[in-house]
Amino acid sequence: MAWNEPGNQGKDPWGNRGGKDQGPPDLDEVFRKFSSKFGGGGSGNLNKMGLMLVLVGGLIVWGLSGLYKIEEAERGVVLQFGKYHDLVGPGLKWKPTFVHTIYPVNIQRINKINASGTMLTQDENVVTVQMEVQYRIVDPRKYLFSVTNPEQSLSEALDSALRYVIGHTTMDNILTVGREKVRRDTWDELQGIIEPYDMGMQLVDVAFKEARPPEEVKPAFDDAIAAQEDEERYVQEATAYSRQVEPQARGRAERMLREATAYKERVVLEARGEVARFTQLLPQYEAAPVVTRERLYLETMEQVYSSTSKVMVDNQEGGSMFYLPLDKIIQSQQPESAPNASSNRQPERVIRTEPSSDRSGGRTTTRQGRN
After folding, report:
1. Claim to verify: residue 31 and residue 52 sit in the same structural domain
2. First to last CA, the chain
3. What's the pLDDT at 222?
4. CATH number of the domain that residue 155 is part of
5. Which of 106, 134, 166 is the last residue in one of the domains?
């Protein structure tokens, strides 16, 4: 049953028990009663109190929004109304919102930037080069405000430095032995370009990643590079061989020189000994020439025949003499344990004595048989 129908006995949910007022209560009256419970004052006090609550809530939100954190590897650049104010270190910080603006900058990270392109060399060839630069931020303030876009500025400077160096280098040096020089020259040229801008960067490394000829002529360049590598390998092998052979040749030459010197000294000493011996022998020869001459002859013959096989044949009666195969007889008499001894022995000699008119009583004739 509705509250305003007959039989409801005037029970009004809005508090009108008499049933005379059929509408909802006045909102002003409700707020007036609510404000009276807090000391009265009417709607003016209520507006002030609501404004205070809004202000306190906004102040709390504003204070909490100013909390921020700077990481260990970062530094915070503080701007006050858009102007540089301070540089803060790592940790939990607070800033007045809408007054300060914080830009965190990582000063420990190694950043990379690449440059590549097709460039013209000094000898008017075309080469495709790719290079990478690694840098680190050392001054966050200069990095943010020295130039508009530091990364783009560094990229353009790298491209300019690389084209300058490639334009002053030949194709062969870029592809083979001159890569390190190109890398170092590019580093120096890039450092000279960015130094006047003072961008707060420090170059860590410049890496020469790739250098190749155009695809249309790449097989010919590959053959040329292979030939140069073979040439270098052959040169190294020849150098190693010369270093190995030269000491041996020097050693042999030194040995031959020492042997020649020793032979010279030996011959000189032997000659001096012979001269001294003949000098001592001269008085004896003058005293007894026949005996001395015979003794010299016998000593000489003893020295000659000391290493030869000899057969003495006395042929005083004259007549013909048949020679025996002395070499075969002597070879058959040698021991079997020395089969090669016959190749080292001297030729056999046959000595025949015949009558002579000198004082020795006979003449000795030496005949050399066939070996």
Report:
1. yes
2. 165
3. 77
4. 3.30.479.30
5. 106
Residue ending a domain, among 190, 213, 236, is 213
Query: Do residues 186 and 194 touch, judged by C-beta distance below 8 A?
Result: no
Q: Is the residue at 290 inside a domain?
A: no
- Find the length of the chain: 371
> Residue 76: inside a domain, yes or no?
yes
Asked whether residue 231 is domain-assigned, the answer is: no
Give Cβ neighbours of residue 224 (< 8 Å, ≥ 6 apart). Answer: 172
Beta pairing, strands 91-94 & 67-70: antiparallel
The pLDDT-based confidence of 337 (bands split at 50, 70, 90) is: very low
pLDDT in tens, 44-103: 666 777 788 888 888 888 888 888 888 888 999 999 888 888 889 898 888 888 888 899
Q: Residue 213 in contact with residue 225, Cβ under 8 Å? A: no
* Domain annotation covers residue 118: yes
The per-residue pLDDT for range 216-229, each reduced to its tens digit, is 777 877 787 788 78
Distance CA 348, CA 343 (A): 12
Helix (H, G, I), strand (E, B) or coil at 8: coil
Task: Note the pTM of the prediction, 2 decimals.
Answer: 0.49
Question: Which of 141, 136, 150, 146 shows the shortest CA–CA distance to 78?
Answer: 141
203's CB contacts (< 8 A; 6+ apart) are 133, 134, 135, 187, 190, 191
- 170 close to 119: Cβ distance less than 8 angstroms: no
Tokens of 8: 């409801």
Structural domain span for residue 10:
1-65
341 pLDDT higher than 50: no
Cite the DSSP H helix spans in 132-178.
140-145, 150-167, 171-175
